[in-house]
Each structure stands twice: as C-alpha cells, then as structure tokens.
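Please check this today:
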Amino acid sequence: MAKSAINRVLAPLDVKIVRSNEQPHDWRNVQTFIPFEPTLKAAHEAGLSVGDYIDTVMNRIPGATQATIDQMSRLGVFAGKIDTVVEIGPGSGRYLEKTLAACSPKRYEIYETAGPWADYVAQTYNVILQPTNGRTMAPTPDNSVDLVQAHKVFSATPFLTTARYWIEMCRVLRAGGFAVFDIVTEASMDPATVTRWVSSQGIDSTYPAMMPRATTVDFFASRGCSLVGSFLIPMGPGTTDTYVFRKN
C-alpha cells in the first residue's frame, strides 16, 4: 500500500516505482490490461472484491461500477425478465459481478481477449467464455439476447472496431432487449477536461477514443433500436457517456 501511495504522488511526473522482479504496467497503453496476479493479491490483502478494489484503490472512484448498474436499473434495464446476457470485454468481471446481483440470467456469455482474466471470470462466476477475435460475436445466435453490454471498452477501441461491435450488438438482441455501453462523446469533453486528458496521456495513446453522440443514436435507430436514456459516469480525469438502447 505504501508503494501505491508513492506511485500516486509520482504519477503526474510519469514516474513509477516497481519491485525489481515486477514488470511495470503502462496505464496509457490500451493494448495491455490490468495486471492479473498482482491485482488479485492486492484486492485480497485489502479485503475487497476485485471490482471494488479496482474502483476504490486503482481508479480512485469508489462506487463507480455500482453507480452504472443503478442508473441502468433506473432506466428499466432490469425491470423485466432477463434470461441471456452477453458482455463484451468484462475484464476483471466488476460489471459482471454487479449485473448478476441485479438480475438472474440463465445464461451469461463473455467475449474477452485478456487470457488470464477471461479464464478467471469464467471460472469465478460460472459464465460462458466464447471464442473471441476482438471484432465479432459470431457464436451468439441472432435475436437471442436480453441484455448486451460493454463497459469501459469503446472508450479505447478504434472507430471500426466499435462500429463492428455495434452491428453485432444489434444482431444478437431480441425484440425488447437492451444494449448498454459507454463512449466518450462531446458531452464528456469540455475544454478543461480536454486539457486534463492531454496532460495525463502519452503522445501515442488511442485512449480516450471519441465518438459523436449523433452518430451513435442515428446508427442504432437505423437498426431498430431506440434510445432509452444516457448518463455520465466518472472515468480518469473526465467522464464517459453511457447509453441505453432498446430494440423495437
């Protein structure tokens, strides 16, 4: 914990201390992911679930994951019966854990490219790990899903990757099903926030990846999905814009 505190102080200087046998993690590199074994160990030592540890200690935004689930509930996502859920990029499983507490699906599929985390989440929560190519959800049948979601995924993926997943989300949703995801829109990028992002990220970072709100709403409307609502959630030095769509 002392090392973590020191690193938080050194972060603005782009300096981080690590053990001699520890591989440093570049938080600005979206091709890497949260370290697996060190995170599990630190969460256990802190007496927190992995998800709550990431929110509270790593991201320093306590309750952020639960706040997203609460807003989804407010918009009616969990009001009806949910038999099948698909999650793109569950990572550590922090949103998956809270989703399972909010509903009781018979089937929960995940698409995750980070191998150790994918295996951990599948085993810990008894969910189905689907073959993942980082672009499609081919194993999931058309019109078969009640809730498809992606949290803190499209804020980093390139435009074409995001758009391909949007097509897949609309394909797998059944009538009345919900699509939930966050993106970084103009609502998240006032001038002061832009300045903070520039100061916090590396020159070659693709994170955050911006997406226009109008493009998002129009695309889903063209695929028969209506916007139920949206809300802002803290992320890094700014916010991310979460959208809830429902298939007509």
User: Anything to note?
Assistant: Residues 1-31 have pLDDT under 50 and may be disordered. Strands lie at 84-88, 107-111, 128-129, 145-150, 173-183, 225-235, 238-247. The CA atoms of residues 184 and 240 lie 5 Å apart. Residues 2-58 form one domain.
